Amino acid sequence: MALRDDKLQELIRSLRDQKLTVGFAESCTGGALSSFLTEQAGVSDIFLGSVVSYSNEAKVDLLGVRRDTLMQEGAVSESVARQMAHGVRRQLKTDWSVAITGIAGPSGGTPTKPVGTVCIAIAGPDFEDSRKELFSGDRKGIQQASVDYSVNWLCEILGKK
Questions:
Q1: Tally of CB atoms within 10 A around 130
Q2: SS (HEC) of 137-156
Q3: How far is CA 54 from CA 15, 29, 51, 153, 156, in A?
């Protein structure tokens, strides 16, 4: 728990020191990343909001994800994660964004995308990247692993800026 708190403090400090803002687009985590950040009071100077886009329609309507990408690659894909990250960054006018889309289970997995498959994208000034990870555990564990991974990755990126 202390490591999680340390990373959260590192993220907040890094964003504040660089006078940057962040927003999130979350699917399989259902707002867990936003909840984790807002456990700290007074983060409205760095956290502008989030979009919990659980359905494909919400991804299209709220984040501008292209229907053809959803049809061709599925909601759990790096392409969709990248479009979600760009969409929430555009909607909230943030410096940085994180998008998470995946299969937290216990159902919904396929042979090519088993339960635990999570695609995460981060977008920022002159930066865009995505990763596909496979987390293990139950639904809550997969959601938590997705949040922790995202926070660690964003800290890593901001630490290089």
A1: 20
A2: CCHHHHHHHHHHHHHHHHHH
A3: 27, 9, 9, 23, 27
DSSP count for the chain of H helices, then E strands: 6, 5
Residue type present at position 156: E
Question: From CA 155, how far away is CA 152, in angstroms rounded?
Answer: 5
Half-sphere exposure in the Cβ direction for 161 (13 Å, CA) = 19
Mean pLDDT of 117-128: 97
Q: How far is CA 83 from CA 50, 66, 68, 130, 134, in A?
A: 14, 8, 12, 10, 20
Residue 111 has pLDDT above 90, yes or no: yes
- pTM more than 0.85: yes
- Distance in angstroms (rounded) separating the CA atoms of residues 101 and 142: 11
Taking the alpha carbons at both ends of the chain, their separation in whole angstroms is: 27
Distances (CA, A) of 72 to 66, 125, 130, 139, 152: 10, 28, 18, 26, 30
- Residues facing residue 22 across a β-bridge: 47, 96
At 49 the three-state DSSP class reads: strand
